[in-house]
Amino acid sequence: MRGADTHKAIETVWRLESPRLIGALVRVVRDLDLAEELAQDALVAALERWPVDGVPDNPGAWLMTAARHRGIDQLRRRKLIERKHAVLGADPDGEAFAMPDLDALDDDIGDDLLRLIFAACHPALSPEAQVALTLRLLGGLSTAEIARAFLQSEPTVAQRIVRAKRTLAEKGVAFEVPRGEERAARLPAVLGTLYLIFNEGYAATAGEDLLRPALCEEALRLARTLAALMPREAEAQGLLALLELQASRQRARTDADGRPVLLPEQNRALWDRLAIRRGLDALARAERLGGALGPYALQAAIAACHARARRYGDTDWPRIAALYALLARVAPSPVVELNRAVAVAVAEGPAAGLAVVEALRGEPALAHYHLLPAVRGDLLDKLGRHAEAGAEFERAAALAGNARERQLMLERAARCRPGAAG
């Protein structure tokens, strides 16, 4: 493999491995900027060597080794070798580089990535900054992807991330694992981070593919670790339930060519029944812990309505609409209200759903959100207002960052034109 193919492979490996690499490096050097710098240096080394030598069998281990060697060089140049020597485990000649004794770190989390997410969600940062920083460093998401997830501009999110890193540096924050009440206080930001990482994998905001399974799998792995670490936290169980239930539908969400398959047309035989059982069990645990009205448990309860229905026509849409109404009170947001509109449309008819959508058309947060015109176009189409529907689908296509979603919207717009075949 040479040239462009090698560079594409490096890009893929970097996206998958950089969060773990940064997480492991922070645990060693206890310095976020240095860890990120070392990871970038390892990437540069890969860009230099892999086109010549080929992609190694274990690219993650190769990157970690390269980062360690760069760390030794950095410390030598900065004359910090004596102060960092014990942490980096290198002798003055740089002949060895050993990880510290993990037992000595007195850490019960046991996962580098989850450990760093907790550490980055420091109370010195606003909740928005906590989530943005951890998504950027650890979720493998670009600034543009985070901006879309927050329904905010890319410069705003970029500035938020820069300020967050500056704040941590100015306060000399040590990337240690919080415990007790401090850990519980950081839990909402950690849950929010895992939720957004999964969502980006489940419905990618940009790129050629609708799904990014690696992100979903990583978020699920971390959610399972977190639920086991904090078994008495209802919302940790609620989030796990939600992710398991959503992930159960992945195989049915695209066809053989990668095109989106909408919920009514999905082959439910492809849904993962084991994942559904795991999700329902986690939801039951959340409810037993008194978390039935938590925002993640409520979303899991909505997903459970779909999971329990063997056919689309069996879905309890009135209950879903009622659950969205509860969610809108517990965690109000324009996106929740848009989802409620979809449920109301199925439960009470497209005119009722359209009334909810019309109230959202002036919502600033949804001004560039492609699903608002997509939903409005769908409801207008069902009401026989095809010309208006076509215009909305075209607007949704123009706003969509994902190529698959854009193509779906253009196809729906074409079917709304006069004389188009149904």
UniProtKB/TrEMBL annotation:
Record domain RNA polymerase sigma-70 region: where: 18-79
Biological processes per GO annotation: DNA-templated transcription initiation
Source species: Fulvimonas soli
Signal peptide interval: none
MF annotations from Gene Ontology: DNA binding; sigma factor activity
The protein's name in its UniProt record: RNA polymerase ECF family sigma subunit
Domain RNA polymerase sigma factor 70 region 4 type intervals: 117-168
Span of domain DUF6596: 186-286
Cross-referenced NCBIfam families: sigma70-ECF
Cross-referenced SUPFAM superfamilies: Sigma2 domain of RNA polymerase sigma factors, Sigma3 and sigma4 domains of RNA polymerase sigma factors
